Amino acid sequence: MEFDYDGGLPLFQQVATQIEEGILNGSYPEEAQIPSTTEVSKSYQINPATVLKGMNLLVDRGLIEKRRGIGMFVVSGAQRKVKEYRRAAFLSNEVQELIEEAKKLGITESQLISLIERGYGK
After folding, report:
1. I need a surface site. Which of 13, 16, 17, 79 has the fewest CB within 10 A?
2. At a CB cut-off of 8 Å and minimum separation 6, what does 97 contact?
3. How far are the Cα atoms of 24, 75, 88, 92, 93 from residue 80, in angstroms, in the given order?
4. What does the pLDDT read at residue 5?
5. Max CA separation in the chain (angstroms)
6. CA gap 12, 18 in Å, rounded
7. How far apart are CA 32 and CA 71, in angstroms?
8. Element housing 86 (H / E)
9. Residue 2 above 90 pLDDT?
10. Sign of CA dihedral 106, 108, 112, 118
């Protein structure tokens, strides 16, 4: 995990994003236990309440669950949920911004498609 202590994104959101990224890339497989609030807090010198707030965001989104007395675990289907959420965000945010910027620059749809295909190595 890496945190930007001076950045504009609050630390609790960074905690949630880092764990979400671990779920997406398989670092935290489904049904696996994630590091405890105390572990993250001590390792990265972050207030335990801040870490817990970030983890609770993921609980609320149904990606991790609290198992009383044991810890936090990645739920079954979490990776799929993260992919779906990120795809939707990507399509509604990044792709739309790309299209709007291309239009401002006078890049046609076919030119943009060609640039994207070139980026994929086609």
Report:
1. 13
2. none
3. 8, 11, 12, 18, 20
4. 77
5. 59
6. 10
7. 10
8. helix 78-89
9. no
10. negative
Residue 3 near residue 41 (C-beta atoms within 8 A): no
The DSSP bridge pattern shows strands 71-74 and 64-67 to be antiparallel
pTM for the model: 0.80
Q: Residue 64: which H helix or E strand, with range?
A: strand 64-67
Instruction: Give the Cα separation of 102 and 55 in Å (integer).
Output: 38
Residue with tokens 């001590």: 42
pLDDT tens-digit map of 63-102:
999 999 999 999 999 999 999 999 999 999 999 999 999 9
pLDDT digits (tens, 9 = 90+) for 28-66: 999 999 999 999 999 988 999 999 999 999 999 999 999
Print burial letters for 75-99: b (CB count within 10 Å at least 16), e (below 16): beebbebbeeeeeeeeeeeeeeeee
pLDDT at 120 over 80: yes
